[in-house]
Amino acid sequence: MDCFYAACERLREPALRGQPLVVGMGYESDEPHGAVATASYEAREFGVESAMAISEALERLPRKVEAAKDPDLDVEEAGFYRPVDLDYYNEVAADVKAILHESADVVREVSIDEAYLDVTDRVAWDGEAAEEADLQSVTAFARDLSERVREEVGVVASVGVAPTMSAAKIASDYDKPEGLVVVEPGEVREFLAPMDVAEIHNVGPVTARELRDMGIETAGDLAASDPDRIRERFGERGLEVRRFARGEDPREVTPVGEPKSLSRESAFTDPTEDVEEKRAKVRALAADVAERAQREGALYRTIGIKVVTPPFDVNTRAESLPGPVEDADLLESTALDLLEEFADDRVRKLGVRVSNLSFTEGEQASLGGFEGTAESATADDDSGALADESAEDGAVGDGSDGDGMQVDEADEGRTLADWADDSGTPGDDEAANDEAAAADDEPADEADGRSPEERDGQLSLWEYE
């Protein structure tokens, strides 16, 4: 995703669009504390960078509100600051990832704003050779994916497509923001050759400096280098990045973890008040979710709905069960009961969701004495990327600007379970939401201690937890 945290803030506060925007970790309004988690492209023009202290960022880019009061400051040379809101960003990410899981059979989520998709079975490209028609198919698929994210969620993504994971990652970063770069089979090495060696997957600043000291300036230099010399200096990891520079990457896209929730959403062509039309939509969505849960062997303890009303108001309602169940009839009836609150409302879009999933073989909970508790939340949605890289096959990867907080499955408070605001754009039913936890496959440069997110221009939030 492109400047994901900033994009999320603009989603709920449209006035921030086009303005210099800094999102700070540990930042509080009117205070100079904390560090920059991400800076919008407009803020970067003033020299604000990720991991920079907020105090230093304020020297380069004062707050608008302060500039308006200080005659010595130029309002046009000032910007906006907002604190990190991970709960909200996770909600938006959940909507994006729902689209990804619908668009590919295999998805690897590596952070809140980055994922790899194996789309081999969705396009004609076989990863070995590509005819013009195949390339058109791949490009059209990637463009449609990017457009769906922008139109249905309201944030923008950059997409890189390549026959290997490492190349697709680089392709996704190649033409930000909202870029789309396709690297054909057999052309990966040529594509990478002129790039600075620091652009190669898993090459951090320290490694890049050491390579330059060896006279290796570009990916092409690294690809043509003596493997024994590289091994002697960097060990097996050095040989791995040399292979990446040569376009060789045998890794396959593999999912990590189990889903935290399953959902299905669908928009009406036009907002409707028709009660039966809304109920019919919920029945169909509930049936889809129930079928998905059964197929994946998932029991659920929470059943919820999502209702988007004009203009873009998002309402969620949920009921908690006394224990995990797998019951299509109960799912449908509960969703319909929750919908009753919106019987008289004009609705743009509806969704059905189950969460608090369990994949054990244990007994289902007894429904005797069922007592649900209702929860609700309302938000506004405004409107608006990915790099998939699978070994030897057509792959697409999410090009993150690296707001990229890692989502570790063992870290229980960082699920992507909640739903994001949605513009309710008409279209096909949206995908079931598999909020899988993941670990980034790009380790920090050992000598430098910096995360891939920092190297991509944004800050890893693990630094501040």
UniProtKB/TrEMBL annotation:
Mg(2+) binds at residue 113. The record marks 5 as: Substrate discrimination. Residues 1-204 form the UmuC domain. One of its GO terms (molecular function) is magnesium ion binding. Keywords: Cytoplasm, DNA damage, DNA repair, DNA replication, DNA-binding, DNA-directed DNA polymerase, Magnesium, Metal-binding, Mutator protein, Nucleotidyltransferase, Transferase. It is found in: Cytoplasm. Residues 447-457 have a biased composition (Basic and acidic residues). Binds 2 magnesium ions per subunit. Signal peptide: none annotated. PROSITE patterns: UMUC. Its EC number is 2.7.7.7. It holds the Pfam family IMS_C. It comes from the Archaea. One of its GO terms (cellular component) is cytoplasm. The active site is at 114. CDD domains: PolY_Pol_IV_kappa (cd03586). It catalyses: DNA(n) + a 2'-deoxyribonucleoside 5'-triphosphate = DNA(n+1) + diphosphate. GO terms for biological process: DNA repair; DNA-templated DNA replication. Residues 427-446 have a biased composition (Acidic residues). Poorly processive, error-prone DNA polymerase involved in untargeted mutagenesis. Copies undamaged DNA at stalled replication forks, which arise in vivo from mismatched or misaligned primer ends. These misaligned primers can be extended by PolIV. Exhibits no 3'-5' exonuclease (proofreading) activity. May be involved in translesional synthesis. Monomer. Belongs to the DNA polymerase type-Y family. HAMAP family: DNApol_IV (MF_01113). This is DNA polymerase IV. It comes from Halosimplex aquaticum. The lineage of its organism: Archaea, Methanobacteriati, Methanobacteriota, Stenosarchaea group, Halobacteria. The gene is dbh.
